[in-house]
TrEMBL record:
UniProt similarity note: Belongs to the pirin family.
Domain annotation Pirin N-terminal: ranges: 18-118
Protein name: Iron-binding nuclear protein Pirin
Gene3D superfamilies with a match to the protein in the record: Jelly Rolls (2.60.120.10)
Origin: domain of life: Bacteria
Domain called Quercetin 2,3-dioxygenase C-terminal cupin: residue spans: 164-239
């Protein structure tokens, strides 16, 4: 099964300098909104005006993954300190038994970011944060940003590097793809997995379905996902059970 969700079908929330496009039910976006896709519970594209902040209170039993696209963002998690995020950085909050407040605040210029919330395998545990720096650019064309699979854990082979994925507490992988026009990506998966691809920029064809910038593509029942770039394109892909 493949379903393309166009930007006009998404939830759109605006409040106090924060603009959100929501792929799943979130806050006031509940009518006819899907609740999740596999263990992917939230996928929001967030635009922050200069000095504006996106805040969460009393979150628990969720992995909150933030990818900064433009601008500078200060991520503050009560009890876990501050992290200054730059374009290309990946930040994960494992809420565990509970985080009383988490805030993502833009600097003196606007900022844009993506947030993915994933449902962990088990509830409880101490809250944790993880941070991966991308440097001045987004780096490699195909990057595994975060994973909950032991075989992807650099600590298992004692070869930690700046490009290693951040650990997740759920059997999921989150990837970033950057394709030139005419480029192709082949993503192996399993028929019982749930794959969700967000076209951040560009235009692609996925298994015979076209998707433009801002579209979400929900896929299941496939053992291989093939992406063709019809224009220079960037995608974020989540593969979960």
């Amino acid at each position: 099964m493949i379903t393309v969700r166009h930007p006009s079908e998404l939830g759109h929330l605006v409040q106090d300098g924060v603009d959100l496009d929501c792929h799943f039910a979130f806050r006031d976006y509940v009518d006819r909104a899907p609740l999740h896709w596999g263990r992917l519970r939230v996928l929001n594209r967030i635009e922050l005006e200069a000095d504006a902040a996106f805040r969460l209170d009393d979150e628990r039993a969720v992995e909150i993954m933030t990818l900064v696209w433009n601008g500078m963002v200060m991520a503050t998690v009560d009890g876990l300190g501050d992290s200054l995020l730059k374009p290309g950085d990946c930040h994960v909050v494992s809420a565990g038994a509970g985080v009383s407040r988490a805030t993502w605040k833009a600097g003196n210029t606007p900022a844009s970011l993506l947030q993915l919330w994933l449902i962990p395998e088990e509830e409880g545990g101490e809250p944790e944060i993880g941070l991966c720096r991308a440097g001045k650019s987004f780096g490699l064309a195909h990057v595994l940003l975060a994973s909950g699979f032991p075989e992807d854990d650099p600590e298992e082979v004692d070869q930690v590097s700046s490009r290693d994925p951040l650990p997740l507490k759920t059997r999921a992988r989150v990837l970033r793809l950057e394709l030139p026009i005419g480029g192709q990506a082949v993503l192996p998966t399993y028929a019982d997995r749930c794959v969700y691809a967000l076209v951040v920029a560009g235009r692609v064809e996925i298994l015979g379905h076209n998707a433009d910038e801002g579209c979400g593509v929900a896929i299941t029942g496939c053992e291989t996902v093939i992406v063709h770039a019809l224009a220079p394109s960037t995608l974020i892909v989540c593969d979960s059970d």
